[in-house]
Amino acid sequence: MADEQILDGDNPEQAATAPEDLQGRVAQLEEQLAAAQDQALRMAADLQNVRRRAEQDVEKAHKFALEKFAGDLLAVVDSLERGLELSSAENEAIKPVREGMQLTLKLLTDTLKRYQVEQVDPLGEPFNPEHHQAMAMEESLHAEPGSVLKVFQKGYLLSGRLLRPAMVVVSKAPAVAQPSIDEQA
């Protein structure tokens, strides 16, 4: 301490600049502290975003893990439905087989529903390009233009996401008959 006082007394310029140097150094350290705090906040936010994205990815993986398996089961559902459509309910010889097919189809569709696989059967509904695939257009006097007239294959959703689009025929307005050249004369 005494040495410092002697130095200060010997060099008045050094004594005058020392508080300025200290103030500059304090300002510099405060800037560094603010930058470090800002960087720490950014890193914490980045870590929180990474954690949230990872949780969302895990949730999606759980939710849609059955996508391929459920898609493969849809061919079985289609085959059972087609078999029921093509067999006659009045034929006594195949009645037990039909009942077995109906029970199997019900069991399979109930199981799919438990795993959030929903059927899309849009017959009579307006065409929705997000859930339907138009296979053809057909003129119709009875149906609203743009509505589904026939369903070739039902569509399915898995947890609200499209698993397979419904293949449909869409109605269109009937063409207005153009008068022929003979009729105009």
Oligomeric state: single chain
Low-confidence stretches: 1-9
Alpha-carbon distance between the two ends: 124 Å
User: Which sheet architecture does the biggest sheet show?
Assistant: 3 strands, antiparallel
* Helix-strand topology string: HHHHEEEEEEH
How much is the average pLDDT?
Answer: 86
Radius of gyration: 38 Å
Q: What does this entry look like structurally?
A:
There is one protein chain. 57% of the residues lie in helices and 18% in strands. By secondary structure, it is of the alpha+beta class. The chain folds into three domains: 2-63; 66-115; 117-175, Nucleotide Exchange Factor Grpe, Chain A, domain 2, CATH 2.30.22. Strands 1-4-5 form a three-stranded antiparallel beta sheet. Mean pLDDT is 86; it is low at 1-9.
